[in-house]
Every structure is written in C-alpha cells, then in structure tokens.
Design a protein that fits this description.
The complex is a heterodimer.
Chain A: E1 8-15, E2 25-32, E3 37-41, H1 48-56, E4 63-68, H2 73-76, E5 80-83, H3 95-99, H4 101-106, H5 111-124, H6 140-153, E6 158-162, H7 170-187, E7 190-194, H8 198-204, E8 207-212, E9 217-223, H9 232-236, H10 238-256
Parallel strand pairs in A: 3-7, 3-8, 5-6, 6-7
Antiparallel strand pairs in A: 1-2, 1-4, 8-9
Chain B: H1 2-28, H2 39-48, H3 50-84, H4 86-101, H5 104-115, H6 119-143, H7 147-155, H8 160-198, H9 208-217, H10 221-250, H11 255-260
Helix pairs in contact in B: 2-10, 3-4, 3-6, 3-8, 3-9, 4-6, 5-6, 5-8, 6-8, 8-9, 8-10, 9-10
The chains are: A alpha/beta, B mainly alpha.
C-alpha cells in the first residue's frame, strides 16, 4: 500500500500581517495533488498573492500549516520555483546569464552543466537567438519567457506563478498560455497559478479555486474536465464557454460572500 | 562617429566665438590688461610658463584624484552600513547632509591647523567635499532594489553575500556613478579651495589654488587667467573620464548610459 503525499497541503491556514487587525487569509484547507494545474482567482485584495508567498516560504503562516511535498515551505524551496508578475530579470545580465542565475545561486551544478541546461531551456522557450542579448532589448513576452526559463532551470516539482502574463497584450498572453501547457507536457510540474482572468484560469487549469475576500477564504473549487492538450480549438468550444461563464458566476457570487 | 565629430566641432566653434567676444570687449572698452588681459596675452604666458603651470596642475590633480578615490571607497562603505537598516539611516543620514551644509571654507583652516599644510590636508579637504553625494547616491541605489528580486534570491537559498554581490551592488552601480559624476567636478573645487588655505610647504611650488593666490599678489593677471582656465579644463577632463568609465561599464544594460551612446 502506498500513501501518496499531496504536493501542497493547506491545513487551516490563516495569515494576518503584523499591525493589521483583519486577517488576509482565514481557514484555508486545500489539497493539491502531484501534476495538477491549479489556478487561484478572486477579487483583488482576497490574498491570492499572499497565498503563493506562504507556499514559497517567503512569509510565515499566522496559524495552521502548509506542507509542500511533505516538507515545510522553507525546506521545500529546492523543488519550488516562483514566477513573478514582472519578469524580474537582472538588467546587467544577458539572457543566458539570467536563466542560469538560480543554478548559480544554488551551486548545485558545475558550470559546464549549467551552460548545457541553460542552452536547452533557451531552445525550449525559443530564445536561443537572443542568448547574448540584454533584457532591455527584449519585448515583454520575450522577457516573460526568460523568466519562465529561469524558473525551470532548477528542475522544480512545483511552479508558483503570480499573474505572470497580466502585463502582456491578449494575443501574446494566449500564445504564452499555450506554450506553458506545452512545456508542462514535457516536464510535468505541478502549478499553482494566480490570475485575474477567468478565461486564462479555465484554459490552463485542471482545477480552479475561487477565493472570497475579507478575509480571503475558499469559496468554490471547480474541476475543469476539458481534455489536454488544449489548443485554439479548446478556446472555441462550447464546453469552454460554459465553464468560463460558470466560473464567472461563481466569482461574482464570491464577491458578495 | 560622424555625430561625435559634429559635437566636438560645435563645442570648438562656441569656444572660438567666446574668445573672440572676450578679445572684442577688451579692445572696444580699452580694459587695462591687469584687470582683463587679452586672450593672446593669456595664451602667450601659458606657453611661456608652461612647466610651472603643468607642475601646479599635477599637484592639484593628485589631490583631487586622491580625494575622489578616498570618497568613493569610504562613501561606498558608509552606504553599505546605511543600507543595513532604516534605523541606522534615520539616525545618521542627517549628518551626511551636514557634510554639505557646513561651510567647508570654515573647516579648511581647522584641518590645516590639525594636520599641517600640504598634500595630505588638501586631499582630505577634497575628500570631505566629495563624500556626501557618494554616500547619498550609493545608499539610494542599495536600498532601491526590487523586493521581488530579493525574494527570488531567497527562494534559491542565496546567501547574504550573494544578495549583496550579485544584486545590490550591481543595481547600485548607476547610482554610484551619478555620485561620482557630481563629485568629480567638486573634487577639483575642493582641492583648489584647500590650496587657497593650505598653500604649499615649499615656496613657489604649489597647486593651482596656491599659484592663483601667488599670481594675484603679484598682479600677474594674465597668468591668473591661465591658471583659472587650466583648472576648468581639469574639471572638464575629470567629468568626461568619469562619463567614459560609466559608459564602459553600463552601456550594455543601463538605459541612461545606453542613451548616451546613441543606441
């Protein structure tokens, strides 16, 4: 008999920032299984980003606990990567040096291996031709690809993404969504994805979590049973539309909770 | 390249026009040469007394460069301490502003009294002139790092040394250069001010400031003009050297330096 450990487990998690009376998050109970793509949506101020920071171990829970692959978030950092809303690249480093940053910091690989991993990742995200460029020479979409490549360099099991495509125009965003799914097929990480966009959440996820605000808590958990791989055709399907509408309705309800 | 040539040409033309206006004013209003000497007389005396002029300039350069370098080293160290905590900043930062507001003219005689006239006291005065802007700008650079980047480093178990060396220091480099650029001109002013008070330990052998005093006492106005112009040229050279190093280090990645290079 094997006991599967959930990839991320929230047990009665609450978060209150010091100096403020109202909690940001309260009583979060969630279990995310290995290989799931989970989106978190909710009105602004419902603590979506805070939730990710807690999983990353960048802030402590006020009460309750989070386990990442059975470990505390601080100890699990090695298998977790974070992608921020801005590309957060180092402007003084070339694209390839930005991608290898995390490997350099962790000193887990000798330099030749680092270069090899970096090269492969740049190929994977289609940026080999700008490896020696500096971030200021890239478009918003390209910068975000570099950011994702950097996150993947350490071979994470779990990817935490905080509105990574919010600053992009809609067409670039749709393309990035498809690319992200393609990458996941090859590497099979678990994803916790925060977004404002219902359509994006439905398109990407196997599960959508709707948060209600003040304090942030789980209002609904919605399974998205559209088959992978998802493509342009998925977006045009009736099932997709229905799911987006249903999720939007739940989101509006959550607002009133 | 062609653009840069045009720039140099423009500057040269403006300079020529200014000299011409100077010459015309002296001529038309019959200004006595001990008040304002004509340009040719200044040029002649600059050539005739070139070894002397050059020696003064070298001494002043040594003091200004010494003061500037010392201010960069000490300024960055102080900024690193300031960047450690808001508490330290709140407590001590007002005193760096004091560095700028206390009339240095008033301190210069004290410093000379304490450590005696000569190279080291003048260098110290130039150093004090430069320090404030290095500290202020570098501190600003060190603390204005994007919080998300710090968290990214922490996510990958970066040490404090890595966060400093690979994030905070490179990020603050453009800020440091703003400070150095401001200080490069101030260093020359500081050195000359210091010399006005400190003079020289050897008679007849001093920096530009000392020579200015000497020339004034002797009513050698033309040489005085030559000295002032030489000091101005020195300040210019400093400024452009700093700009060059800034471009060299930053043009690849930093917007402001990249704009200067016209790319």
């Amino acid at each position: 008999m094997t006991v599967t450990v959930p990839e991320v487990l929230f047990r009665a998690v609450s978060k209150r920032f010091t100096g403020s009376s109202a909690p940001v998050l309260e009583g979060i109970d969630l279990s995310i299984e290995r290989g799931e793509f989970v989106s978190i949506i909710g009105p602004s101020g419902c603590g979506k980003s805070t939730l990710l920071k807690l999983v990353a171990g960048l802030a402590p829970c006020t009460s309750g606990e989070i386990a990442v692959n059975g470990m505390t978030p601080e100890n699990a950092r090695e298998v977790v990567s974070f992608v921020f809303q801005d590309a957060t690249l180092l402007p003084w480093r070339t694209v390839e040096k930005n991608v290898s940053l995390a490997l350099e910091l962790e000193r887990s690989q000798p330099p030749p291996e680092r270069r090899q991993i970096t090269q492969k990742l740049l190929e994977l995200v289609g940026l080999s031709h700008v490896a020696k460029h500096y971030p200021r020479q890239l478009s918003g979409g390209m910068k975000m690809r570099v950011s994702i490549a950097r996150a993947l360099a350490t071979r994470p099991r779990l990817l935490l993404m905080d509105e990574p495509f919010a600053a992009l125009d809609e067409m670039t965003r749709d393309r990035m969504n498809e690319e992200l799914l393609r990458l996941r097929e090859e590497q099979n990480w678990t994803v916790l994805f925060v977004t404002h966009s219902v359509a994006e959440a439905v398109f990407l996820s196997s599960k959508v979590i709707v948060l209600a605000p003040h304090p942030g808590r789980v209002a609904h958990v919605l399974d998205v049973d559209l088959p992978y791989p998802r493509t342009e055709a998925t977006r045009e399907s009736q099932e997709f539309d229905d799911l987006v509408n249903r999720t939007s309705r739940l989101l509006r309800e959550a607002h009133r909770l | 390249m062609k653009q840069r040539l045009m720039l140099v040409l423009n500057a040269a033309i403006v300079f020529a026009v200014l000299v011409l206006v100077w010459w015309a004013i002296v001529r038309v209003f019959k200004v006595p040469p001990y008040m304002v000497p004509p340009p040719m007389q200044v040029a002649k005396i600059a050539v005739a007394r070139f070894p002397e002029l050059w020696a003064s300039l070298l001494i002043t350069t040594e003091e200004a460069v010494g003061g500037l370098f010392a201010s960069i080293v000490i300024g960055v160290l102080v900024a690193l301490i300031f960047a450690r905590s808001p508490w330290i900043r709140r407590t001590f930062f007002p005193y760096t502003i004091l560095l700028q507001t206390v009339p240095i003219m008033a301190i210069a005689p004290l410093i000379i009294m304490w450590i005696g006239p000569g190279l080291s006291s003048v260098t110290l005065i130039a150093f004090i002139f430069c320090l404030a802007s290095i500290i202020a700008n570098t501190t600003q650079g060190l603390i204005s790092v994007d919080e998300n980047l710090v968290q990214l480093f922490l996510m990958h178990n970066a040490s404090q040394a890595q966060i400093l060396g690979r994030l905070r220091l490179p990020h603050s480099l453009p800020y440091l250069f703003v400070g150095i650029r401001i200080s490069s001109g101030i260093a020359v002013i500081g050195a000359i001010t210091g010399e006005l008070f400190a003079g020289s330990s050897q008679v007849g052998q001093g920096g530009v400031g000392y020579s200015i005093l000497y020339a004034m006492a002797q009513l050698q106005t033309a040489y005085l003009f030559a000295l002032v112009m030489a000091a101005t040229a020195l300040g210019f050279t400093f400024f452009f050297l700093v700009m060059f190093f800034e471009w060299l280090l930053l043009h690849n990645w930093h917007e402001s330096a990249a704009r200067q290079s016209g790319s």
